[in-house]
Write a structure and sequence with these properties.
- Two copies of one chain form a homodimer.
- The first copy, chain A, is of the alpha/beta class and 409 residues long.
- The first copy, chain A, is built from 15 helices and 17 strands.
- In chain A, the strands form five sheets. A five-stranded mixed β-sheet of chain A has the order 14-13-15-16-17, sandwiched between helices. In chain A, strands 3-8-7-6 form a four-stranded mixed β-sheet, sandwiched between helices. A four-stranded antiparallel β-sheet of chain A has the order 10-11-9-12.
- In chain A, 47% of the residues are buried.
- β14 of chain A pairs antiparallel with β14 (292-298) of chain B.
C-alpha cells in the first residue's frame, strides 16, 4: 500500500511498489495486490483491514513526513489502539541528523520521534522518518518512508531479512527470454504447442514493447520446478532462436555493443528519420566508446550528400527514402565515420511526408561492412505505423536488431 | 485498476495510472484508488465489485493481448453475464492492420475481434486491442489496452470526452508554467511570498524533471476561481521571467524550433556526451526539418577533428571536455552542418572517465552563430550528477535551454 494524494493525481509515479514486488518475488513472497490510496484516515484503515483479511503481510510506504498531510502514524496508532510515544532512539538519531547539517531541530522535526506504542522501530539511516514493524495475530504490517532510496535501504537492510526469518516462503524461479523483430502474435503461433504443454506450477507471459517482446516463464512451488522452467525455456529459445537477442534485463544496444567489442569492430551510424535515437540508444550504454565512433544525422538532401557522399542523382531519382539512398548512406558512413560496420536508416516517421507510394511508416535500413577490400551492404524495408512517437523507437529497435543479425551473419 | 502479473512482480512499473490520474484530475474527476492485480479471474472480479460499490467509474488497463495470459475480456463477459461475440468493426480494423503490414492474420489475431456482447466498442487506432465501455446501474467500466501510447490515445480521443458527457464534475482550472535551468529550491525562494498569499481553493505544486520544473496552479470550486488562478499565474511568471520557456504541454525542443523557424534560421548540433539525445529531442517534433539540418555525434578525438575541424592540438592540450574544444566543435559545425546556429556539447556522462580536475558530471556547452561575416560563440559550464542515466537527459535539457537563451539574446 502506497499512501499519498500525489500518487492519485498523477504528480508522482509509484515506483516503490514495482521495486518491492521484484525483491519480494525473488525471495519467494507472493505479491497479491498493489494499491495506492489518499492521505486520509478512512481509506487507509479500510484498505489495511481488507488487505490483512486476505494476506499475511502488508507493506506500507509514504505518509511519514513532518508536514500536515502525513497521517500514517496517527492512523496506525488508532488501528492498533495505542498512543503515540516518544522514541529515544529516533530522538537521538534526529539530534545527530540536524547537528551534522548545522541546522536547528524544529518542533515539526521533533514530531518525527513520536511512534505508536505497539510497534518495533527501525531507524532510517538515509533520512529522518523511522520505519515501524507491527505484528499481531500472526500478521505483519510494516510502515516505511515513501522516499525511494530510504525505502530501498530499509527493505534491503532490515525488512526483507526479517520477513524471511518470520515466514517460510515458496520457491520462485523466473527466466525471461528477450526477442526482437517478431511480433507477439507470430511468436505465439511458433511456440503455441510448447506453451500448451507447460506443467502445473509454471506460468507464462508475453511483454511487448516497440518491436521487442519479452517472454517470461515463472515456476513456483518446490525447488525441483527450476529444472522444469529451464527445460521449457530452452525449448522456447530453440524454436525462436533467430529472434532471441538475450535474457533477463539485457539491453539490445548493449548486446549489439558486446558483439562488436568482442570482434574488435567499430560502429558508425547514419540516421535520418530516427533523428539521433539509435545513437542515443547505443551511447546510453556505459563504455560504448570501445566500439562506437560516432554518427551523422542527415535530415536534408544536402547533408546526405555533404557528409555521406550520397549522389545528388540518387536523391533526385529515388528520393531520400529508398533502398538506393540508404545503401549509399551506409557505404558513405564507412569512410566518414571510419567504421567497420555502419547502420543507415531513412524513412517517413510522420505525421507528414507520406505519399500513396511511400506512406508514413515506410522505412529503409542498410548495414554496410568491410569485407576485405570491398564493402558489402544488406538492406531491409520496414512498414511501420502512422504515429511518429511510435515509429521512432520502433524503427530504432528493429534497426539495431537488423544490425545484430547482419553482424552475426 | 491495472491488470498483469508483470506489475506485481515488478517487471513493469505502472505508469498508466499516474497519467490517467493526472488527466482525470484535470477534468474534475476525483481518483480514489489505484490498484494493480493479477491476471486471474478471482482478483479481477473481486476488485471490480469492490471498486464499483464505492465509485461511479472504474477504468481498467491491461490484459487485452491476443495471447493466453490475457483474460480481461473473458472475465468481463462473465461479470456482465454475456458471451463473447465477433465485432465487425474490430475485424475490419484487424484486416486492414495486417494488410498494411503485409502479414497474414492468424487465428490468435482473430480472437482480438471477439468482445463481450454487453459493451460499446472503441477501435484502437494505435494498435489492435479495442477498448470496451460498459454502463450498468449508472456506473461505467472501461477496459483499455495496457500499452501506454495506445491507452493514452484512447483516453484522450474517446474516454475522457465521453466521461465528461456522462458525468457532471466540479469546475477545475489549471495553469502550468514551464521553466528550465533554475532548480526547484531556488524557484521556491523567488516566489515564496506569492505562494503564501494564495487564496483558498487554489493549490500549488512544483513538478521537477531533468533540469526543467513545471509550476502548476490549480483552482477548484466556482467558475470565478479562474480569474484568481490567472492573476497568480501572471504574478509568478513575472517574478521568474528568464526561466520561463512556455506553458502547459509545450516541449522545450518545440519552443526552440519555433524561435528558429520564425527567424528563418537553420540549426546544427554537435554532440559528444549526450550521444544523439539532443538531436532526438529536436527531431521528435513533427516538422523539425523546417529549421533543423542535421547533427554529428563525435565520440572520438578523430571524429571531432574529421567532422568538426577541431584542432588535434586543442584535444591534446585541453582534452575533449574543455571550453576550447566545445568552442571549436560549435564553430566547425557551422560549416559542416551549413547552419546559422549550432549547439555543441562535450562532457563526462559517467560512470567512468572522471578525474579529480574534471569529475563525472562536468559538461561544457557552446552555441555558435553567424554574426555578419564572423562567428560569435557563447559557452557555459555545467556541473551535473554522478549518474549517466540522469546526466544525458539533464545535460540535453540544459543545453536546449542555453540555446534558447542565446538565440533570444
Amino acid at each position: 500500500m502506497t499512501i499519498g494524494d500525489e500518487l492519485l493525481i498523477g504528480q508522482v509515479i509509484d515506483t516503490n511498489s514495482a521495486w518491492m514486488g521484484k525483491e519480494l518475488n525473488a525471495r519467494g513472497f507472493d505479491v497479491k495486490e498493489i494499491v495506492s490510496v489518499s492521505d486520509q484516515k478512512t481509506p487507509i484503515i479500510e484498505t489495511l483491514e481488507r488487505l490483512l483479511s486476505k494476506n499475511n503481510i502488508v507493506l506500507i510506504t509514504g505518509g511519514l513526513g513532518p508536514t500536515k498531510d502525513d497521517i500514517t502514524k496517527k492512523t496506525l496508532a488508532a488501528y492498533y489502539d495505542c498512543s503515540l510515544v516518544e522514541n529515544t532512539d529516533i530522538l537521538n538519531h534526529l539530534k545527530k541528523f540536524y547537528e551534522a547539517r548545522n541546522r536547528p531541530m524544529s518542533d515539526t522535526a521533533y514530531e518525527m520521534s513520536l511512534v505508536p506504542e505497539a510497534c518495533e522501530v527501525f531507524i532510517n539511516q538515509k533520512g529522518t522518518a523511522a520505519s515501524m514493524w507491527f505484528e499481531k495475530d500472526g500478521k505483519v504490517v510494516v510502515s516505511m518512508p515513501g522516499v525511494p532510496y530510504e525505502m530501498k535501504d530499509m527493505m534491503s537492510r532490515v525488512v526483507l531479512p526479517k520477513l524471511s526469518e518470520v515466514y517460510e516462503t515458496n520457491f520462485i524461479y523466473h527466466r525471461t527470454i528477450l526477442t526482437a523483430g517478431v511480433p507477439e502474435s507470430k511468436l505465439a503461433e511458433l511456440i503455441d504447442d510448447i506453451i500448451s504443454d507447460l506443467p502445473n506450477g509454471i506460468s507464462f507471459a508475453y511483454l511487448p514493447s516497440f518491436g521487442k517482446v519479452r517472454i517470461r516463464l515463472s515456476g513456483r512451488g518446490e525447488k525441483g520446478i527450476q529444472n522444469q522452467v529451464d527445460l521449457f525455456t530452452e525449448k522456447v529459445k530453440e524454436r525462436i532462436r533467430p529472434a532471441v537477442f538475450g535474457e533477463d534485463k539485457e539491453e539490445l544496444a548493449a548486446v549489439v555493443g558486446e558483439i562488436l567489442a568482442e570482434r574488435g569492430l567499430k560502429l558508425g551510424i547514419a540516421e535520418s528519420c530516427t533523428g539521433g535515437f539509435i545513437s542515443h540508444q547505443i551511447t546510453s550504454i556505459p563504455g560504448s566508446s570501445r566500439y562506437y565512433n560516432g554518427s551523422v544525422v542527415t535530415y536534408s538532401y544536402e547533408m546526405k550528400s555533404d557528409l555521406l557522399d550520397v549522389a545528388p542523382e540518387t536523391l533526385t531519382n529515388t528520393g531520400a527514402v529508398s533502398e538506393e539512398t540508404v545503401k549509399e548512406m551506409a557505404q558513405g558512413a564507412i569512410a566518414t565515420l571510419r567504421a567497420d560496420y555502419t547502420l543507415a536508416i531513412s524513412g517517413i516517421a510522420g505525421p507528414g511526408g507520406g505519399t500513396a507510394e511511400k506512406p508514413v511508416g515506410t522505412v529503409w535500413l542498410a548495414v554496410a561492412y568491410k569485407n576485405g577490400d570491398q564493402i558489402d551492404i544488406k538492406t531491409k524495408l520496414l512498414k511501420l505505423t502512422q504515429s511518429r512517437e511510435i515509429n521512432i523507437p520502433l524503427a530504432s529497435n528493429l534497426a539495431l536488431n537488423f544490425l545484430r543479425k547482419c553482424i552475426l551473419g
